[in-house]
Write a structure and sequence with these properties.
Number of helices: 22
Structural class: alpha+beta
CATH superfamily of the largest domain: Topoisomerase I, domain 2
Distance between the termini: 38 Å
CATH class of the largest domain: Mainly Alpha
Strand order of the largest sheet: 14-11-12-13-10-9-15
Number of strands: 24
Largest sheet: 7 strands, antiparallel
Strand content: 15-25%
Number of domains: 5
Shape: globular
Radius of gyration: 30 Å
CATH architecture of the largest domain: Orthogonal Bundle
CATH topology of the largest domain: Topoisomerase I, domain 2
Mean pLDDT: 92
């Protein structure tokens, strides 16, 4: 009897795959805490074993005393990153369970990262012969039916084009990130004889440049005064505002003449224009659209949405979320999924019955495609024990799926033009005549209706008040986490799966802060110094060019080694320029680093003496706390969370008056709190923290 080793990406996938492929319940084994599954299929003994994401990572083979460094190789992740120590036992488990295997299957997620994870496991833990013999499972959901079909239709070999593209991306990211980061840190060390942990990246730095450009626009903006004229009308007991046809008067004298003409005059209806229009159904979610809609509906950051979607995928509730596709192939069986969704709740049942009664099921699709996966869709599997955020995102995805099959909504808009002493004003009304797909999308598609009373041309309306307001033009809006990820996609910076983590890293490095993103002095100086002395490093076009070349590797149009060598030569050229100006760059970055770190340490104002409450690390215990800058005269202090980045919110608690902070933790939801541990707002904190940990555990 032969032995087939099936390598999965994570433990949650391993149990799904084993359960789907086994004729009866598979036998669960345990290797020092690593679960694996055994069963017989025909004349084969099958062993399904999980990795824990990337078990291998790139590492320089010699210490990075200078730059550039290109001598790198794959190393076990636990030997490189102390935080990844848990991966060691997975390495040991796979190496042991691979003994005696005659056949191999990579059943990792079908994308660049999944293909690379499976390849490295097979190459370094099972041997080169395993790579040659291995076959590939390709699936978009973790449902039993899809997994069974994927095994029956095994690809005859590994997906080497995806693997090569994955290797190229990792090598390019390492070359760019490690060498430029080392160059910047070395520049500060030379200029100021001190260490500064600075970071740059192939995608990170051009993204930061976009944010800095917006920051400069905002700071350079000079407000211009303008005047707004409006009417307050009372119609059928309701107050309605009518706007002047000139939305902004930039000439005060002209505005005042219009105001004088309106005084004590009735509003006469001159024309009424009614227009009906259809709102087509939405298109299916790709990852970017899902992230954007989840931010709009729930305020979830792109990274948070990606984590929640990954959990739903691993629970076999939705298809693979890291997709660029906006299309749903008929092969997923629309009617079956809609019918299954109808069994989940009464609300879903009503929608499902209506859709299944239609003559045909044809989704309204977008233009974008993905060679590996369709758009995000619910599998129809019944959700169990979903926590709050998971439940919300699942409902959004399910209702979006329903909606793409819906009929267009019919809406009506009304524009009523008024004459007030010769001055033109107007009223707008809108209402939905036929809900169509809006009924399926529920609150996510709700728009405020403005219902106007029945009016006739020539009718005079009483003006309750003429409003005359002076305002100022506003600077361009700051990017938020959703809009900057959208901008990255528009400029071809990064990939669908890497954009949110890249943004998260820019936050962690202290280059930006806040939901309405503000760039720190350090973030500005990083971009300014690079733009001045080595602008190619922040070039969007250069980054997008290499992104296109990685895609060409994936499509079999470019050679991996050729692309890597080209990047190496380009980086060599850039870093030579950098070295010439290393001292000047170091002076700029060093001062900005010092100022930014000082500002970040100030948490708020001391309520006892008016000094600064600063983040301090105890020399004795190495624990951090908030202490007053006027110590020892003032001994006011507060304990702080020991994990995560602490950001001052610039405001005080409404209940106790103590400064508020936000704690950002990698891979977890940020939370806000005041510094006072005895604050009444924390009375139920024990219960809340227990619930939050449960949510985070199921999301990871």
């Amino acid at each position: 009897m032969g032995k087939t080793l099936i390598v999965c990406e994570k433990p949650s996938a391993a149990v799904k795959i084993a359960s789907a492929l086994a004729a009866k319940r598979p036998k669960k084994g345990d290797f020092n805490g690593v679960p694996y599954y055994e069963f017989e299929r025909g004349n084969e003994r099958m062993v399904v074993v999980p990795a824990l994401g990337h078990l291998f990572t790139l590492k320089n083979l010699k210490p990075m005393r200078t730059y550039p460094v290109y001598d790198i190789d794959w190393m076990p992740t636990h030997e490189v990153d102390r935080k990844a120590k848990r991966t060691q036992v997975f390495v040991e488990a796979i190496r042991e369970l691979a003994k005696g295997a005659t056949d191999y299957v990579s059943a990792c997620d079908y994308d660049l990262e999944g293909s690379l994870i499976g390849y490295n496991v097979l190459k370094f833990l099972c041997g080169e012969e395993a790579v040659k013999r291995a076959r590939r499972m390709k699936f978009s959901t973790l449902t039993a039916q899809d997994l069974q079909q994927a095994y029956e239709e095994l690809m005859p070999s590994l997906d080497f084009e995806l693997i090569d593209a994955g290797v190229a991306r990792h090598v390019l990211d390492w070359y760019w990130g490690m060498n430029i980061s080392k160059a910047m840190s070395a520049a500060v060390e030379e200029a100021q004889k001190r260490f500064a942990k600075l970071s740059a990246g192939r995608v990170q730095t051009p993204t930061l440049k976009i944010l800095v450009e917006r920051e400069r626009e905002i700071k350079a903006f000079k407000p211009e005064p303008f005047w707004v004229l409006s009417l307050l009308l009372e119609l059928e007991g309701k107050e309605i505002v009518s706007e002047h046809a000139t939305p902004r008067f930039f000439d005060q004298a002209e505005a005042e003449r219009a105001l004088a003409a309106c005084k004590d005059k009735p509003a006469k209806v001159s024309t009424i224009q009614t227009r009906q229009y259809r709102r087509p159904p939405p298109i299916p979610f790709d990852l970017g659209l899902l992230q954007s809609e989840a931010y709009r509906c729930f305020g979830y950051t792109p990274m948070r949405t990606q984590q929640l979607a990954q959990f739903l995928y691993q629970a076999a509730l939705i298809s693979y979320p890291r997709t660029s596709s906006q299309k749903l192939p008929p092969t997923i069986n629309y009617a079956k999924i809609i019918g299954q969704l109808g069994g989940i709740s009464k609300q879903y049942r009503k929608i499902a019955d209506e859709l299944l009664a239609a003559p045909e099921l044809k989704p309204n699709e977008g233009k974008k495609t993905d060679p590996a996966h369709p758009a995000v869709f619910p599998t129809g599997e019944r959700p169990e024990r979903l926590m709050g955020p998971q439940k919300k995102l699942y409902d959004l995805i399910a209702r979006r799926f329903f909606s793409v099959f819906g009929k267009p909504a019919l809406a009506e808009s009304i524009r009523v033009e008024l004459d007030v002493g010769g001055q033109p004003f107007f009223l707008r009304g809108r209402r939905v005549l036929e809900e169509g797909w809006l009924a399926y999308y529920g609150r996510y598609g709700a728009t405020e209706e403005i219902i106007l009373p029945q009016l006739g041309e020539g009718q005079e309306l009483a003006v309750k008040e003429v409003k005359f307001e002076e305002k100022e033009t506003q600077p361009p809006p700051r990017y938020n986490p959703s809009s900057i990820v959208k901008e990255m996609e528009a400029r071809n910076l990064g990939t669908k799966g890497t954009r949110a983590p890249t943004l998260q890293n820019i936050y962690i490095r202290g280059y930006i802060f806040g939901n309405q993103i503000t760039v720190t002095d350090l973030g500005i100086e990083v971009i300014d110094s690079l733009l001045k002395y080595c602008p190619e490093i922040v070039s969007e076009e250069l980054t997008a060019q290499f992104e296109r070349e990685v895609e060409a590797i994936q499509e079999g149009k470019r050679d991996k080694e050729e692309v890597i060598e080209k990047a190496r030569k380009e980086l060599d050229r850039l870093l030579k320029k950098f070295k010439v100006h290393q001292l000047e760059i170091g002076k700029q970055l060093g001062e900005a680093y010092r100022i930014t770190r000082q500002k970040q340490r100030i948490i708020g104002t001391c309520g006892k003496c008016g000094g600064d409450l600063k983040l301090i690390v105890s020399r004795a215990t190495h624990k951090r706390f908030a202490g007053c800058s006027n110590y020892p005269k003032c001994t006011n202090s507060f304990p702080l969370p020991q994990a995560g980045m602490i950001i001052s919110l610039g405001k005080t608690c409404e209940q106790c008056g103590v400064p508020m902070i936000q704690v950002n933790r990698i891979g977890m939801r940020p939370y806000r709190m005041c510094l006072d541990p005895k604050c009444p707002s924390k009375a139920d904190w024990g219960k809340r923290k227990k619930k939050q940990k449960k949510v985070e555990k199921t999301s990871s």
